[in-house]
Design goal:
This protein has 371 residues and is an alpha/beta fold. 46% of the residues lie in helices and 14% in strands. The chain is built from twelve helices and eleven strands. α6 links the parallel β6 and β7. The longest helix is centred in the C-terminal third of the chain and has 37 residues. The radius of gyration is 26 Å and the shape is globular.
Length: 371
């Protein structure tokens, strides 16, 4: 209301001037169209930064931030002018959350499982082993109370989260040696973040957490023996096929990874209501669009990996999957800890998963089996 007061005063003065001209000052009538109305004050432009955990212009995840910034620029008629910075340009990939929390950047784009050291329960808002698919987790966030719990978790850090992307079910990853039995996991050094890393550790492996920009070199030089990243779309772009021989599936560790937009609370609350609504609406649009992008592009990427690069697809043995599932149940339960909020998040997530699992089995799973 206060921002519009000067414009209303100018308009009132213009009307008064026009009325005086019409009622007095000579015998000839004055044409109102000849009296110019004062120009409106230019709209305030918010020049923001969005920092990401992804390499600059990485297909899928990296472009989600670019597309979000561009759509907001267009929708706001330039009032939201957001510049995108990839991992390492302003801060390191794993420093994004702290930078947004402190207000050094207004926005960030990444994944909640990167902040596990700060909030052990955070991975439930990104992906957990043997957890919900993209469709299921979106339903929980939007209509199962998930988003409200997510915002409650981030509130002490001065950060407002939004779902802003999803990869769908990922691949299990690239391995330099075949995995034929559970013993093959013993001592295996694998780049794998979040709860998936701890599950691997309890199954005999050695988890390593490094940013996406370092994955290729680490695998190629033998610093790690295996890596997961996302799936064919990103894996082809990063050239992982030339560093790892065997491409395993399914992605037990990340069945529907939520990518997040985080916004500094003070910056968000300082925006007019229409710009706040634009951010929320655009984040949801990007969330859906990113999943479609990954699904469509991975089809062609997988074909290229197999036909042009001779990639060998392998299914993880049932024995290995069984061990990983068993360890996963323990690890996920332990993330809730003793604090009340984490317990509520855990119960909400697992409760929704247990309910939606039967429905998905009767619909999506049943259909795929007969298709």
């Amino acid at each position: 209301m206060k921002a519009n007061a000067p414009r209303r005063r100018c308009h009132a003065v213009w009307l008064a001037t026009l009325l005086i001209s019409l009622l007095g000052c000579g015998n000839e009538p004055v044409d109102p169209s000849t009296v110019a109305e004062p120009a409106a004050a230019p709209a305030k432009v918010y020049q923001w930064k969005i920092i990401t955990t992804w390499p600059k212009f990485l297909p899928g995840a990296g472009m989600s931030a670019e597309n979000l910034a561009e759509r907001l620029r267009v929708m706001s008629d330039g009032r939201l002018d957001i510049r995108v910075y990839g991992a390492g340009e302003l801060v390191g990939a794993f420093e994004v959350f702290d930078a947004v929390s402190a207000g050094n950047a207004e926005m960030g784009h990444g994944a909640a499982y990167y902040w596990r050291g700060k909030m052990p329960i955070a991975p439930l808002f990104s992906a957990i082993p043997f957890g919900m698919t993209a469709q299921e987790v979106n339903a929980w966030l939007r209509y199962g109370g998930g988003l409200e719990l997510w915002r409650e978790l981030y509130a002490p850090f001065n950060v407002v989260p939004f779902a802003a992307g999803n990869t769908g079910v990922q691949m299990a990853g690239w391995f330099n040696e075949e995995i034929n039995a559970l013993e093959d996991l013993a001592g295996l050094k694998m780049r794998i973040p979040g709860l998936g890393g701890e599950v691997l550790e309890r199954s005999g492996g050695v988890p390593v957490n490094i940013p996406g920009g370092e994955v290729f070199t680490a695998l190629q030089t033998g610093v790690i023996d295996a890596t997961e990243w996302v799936g064919p779309y990103n894996d082809l772009a990063l050239g992982l096929y030339s560093a790892g021989r065997y491409y395993y599936y399914p992605g037990w560790h990340e069945p529907g990874t939520v990518l997040e937009l985080i916004v500094n609370r003070q910056a968000f609350e300082a925006l007019p209501a229409d710009l706040q609504a634009m951010i929320a609406t655009t984040a949801q649009a990007i969330n859906d669009d990113t999943l479609s992008d990954y699904t469509a592009r991975s089809v062609a990427a997988l074909e290229t990996l197999e036909r042009e690069h001779g990639v060998l697809l392998r299914l993880l043995p049932a024995e290995v999957i069984g061990k990983l599932r068993q360890a996963s149940l323990q690890v996920v339960a332990e993330t809730a800890g003793e604090d009340e909020l984490s317990q509520r998040i855990y119960k909400s997530y697992t409760g929704f998963l247990n309910g939606v699992r039967r429905y998905t089995d009767l619909t999506e799973k049943a259909y795929l089996e007969i298709r």
